[in-house]
Write a structure and sequence with these properties.
The complex is a heterodimer of chains A (125) and B (300). Chain A has helices at residues 2-25, 40-57, 60-68, 75-89, 94-106. Chain A is mostly helical. Chain A folds into two domains: 1-30; 35-122, no CATH class. Chain A starts with a helix and ends in a 19-residue tail after the last helix. In chain A, 37% of the residues are buried. Chain B is of the alpha+beta class. Among the domains of chain B are: 54-140, no CATH class; 194-299, Immunoglobulin-like (Sandwich), CATH 2.60.40. Chain B has helices at residues 23-44, 59-76, 79-87, 95-108, 115-130, 137-140, 145-155, 159-163, 172-175, and strands at residues 194-203, 210-216, 227-232, 235-240, 251-255, 263-266, 281-284, 287-299. In chain B, the strands form two sheets. In chain B, strands 1, 2, 5, 7 and 8 form a five-stranded mixed beta sheet that branches. Chain B has a three-stranded antiparallel beta sheet with strand order 4-3-6, with no helix packed on it. In chain B, helix 4 (95-108) packs antiparallel against helix 5 (115-130). The chains are: A mainly alpha (125), B alpha+beta (300). At the A-B interface, helix 1, helix 2 and helix 3 of A face helix 1, helix 2 and helix 5 of B.
Amino acid sequence: MRVIRSIFFGLLLGAIVGLYFGWGQFPAESRNSNLSDLARPFRDDYIVMAAAGYAADGDLDGAIQRLSRLGIDDAPSAIREITERIILNSARGLADIRLLVNLADELGQLTQPMRPFLDASRGRE
Amino acid sequence: MQRDLRPQPIKTASTPETGYFSAWVFALCLIVGMALGIGFTRVYGPWQRGNAEPWQLRPEERDHYMMAIALEYSHSGDTAKALDKLIALRPGGDPLAQLAEAACALGSRGYLGSESGIRALRSAVALYTAQGRAGCAEQLLPPLATEAAAEVQLAQPPETQRSTPLPTKRPLQEALPATPTPRYRPALPAPRNFEVLSVRSFCDLTRPALIEVFVVDYLGRGIPGQRIRARWGDREDIFVSGLKAERGDAYADFQMEENIDYSIDMAGADDALGTRLSTDTCYTENRRSLKSYRVTFVER
């Protein structure tokens, strides 16, 4: 009985210690991440690049397809939320915000905080 | 007085259980459990999934990230920004060559099945061909409408061109007009201006406490012979790019010591590094090392 008890508690405690060191103290530098695993600043960066791509080629489907790689299912809502957050936090430069606002506008998600940043050359309010 | 001559009862060898655990079984299982736990974290990856940096992307996702960089470049035309983002992917070689490879790989995987993919790939090709690189994506892309029209035009020259053939040999005097012989004038080298493109820290067991400097021109080609100055306290040292042939023309490095702040500058780079560089403990592959830096100067 004490052997079985020793095996059980030994493995359990060892696994806990192993997980603690493997995840907490010395985490692996994985090179196997998806785009959806990116940290927020890099996610934002990718979204801005997708918006710039849209500004360059006018391909809305392509932009939505690129956003879906981030695990975004509802691209219009996600763009609205991200753009508003970036505007409120001043998290990006003016040029980037304009790209995001123009994409949000094209997706029918233009909100009040975005209006001052809408590109006037697009002939909208 | 009689002695008891009967044989004494034999004592049994069985020992009573003296503890809650069997020490050696417990220790053995503890070690096995730790190995399993650590092994699991290495196979499964990091606990925090939403905390990755672009260089941690798996190859296919990295290719798509590069296409996004190329698309942004097609909008902004900012080569330095695109290069900076490509370098942030830690390509382990020429970032533009990696972009060409990514474009080639995506083009071979059915990325060209949509207009969106074709546009993205064109952006990538435009970026790396503008910097003097080549790949297979150029051959995979369908010709542009203007290119196709030009090809048709070349295949069918206009009637006027076909009816009046040019002479195959021109008169000698006409062919060789007298021109003044140009005189050789040694030109003074134009002063080169640089700016700091990026400063990044990294942790490497084989290269601890090192400042790696890369000096490149606006096309991303290495510039040898550039003198870089490291200053600390009231002392300074000069090191020169291109002296380590195995690392390329752009490369120069400087060995740091702990607990010293260094500043780096270079002739022609008026915006010298604003931050001071100092090394500190870092961990990679579960081992301790000292933090190193990678500084890139690009010609303006």
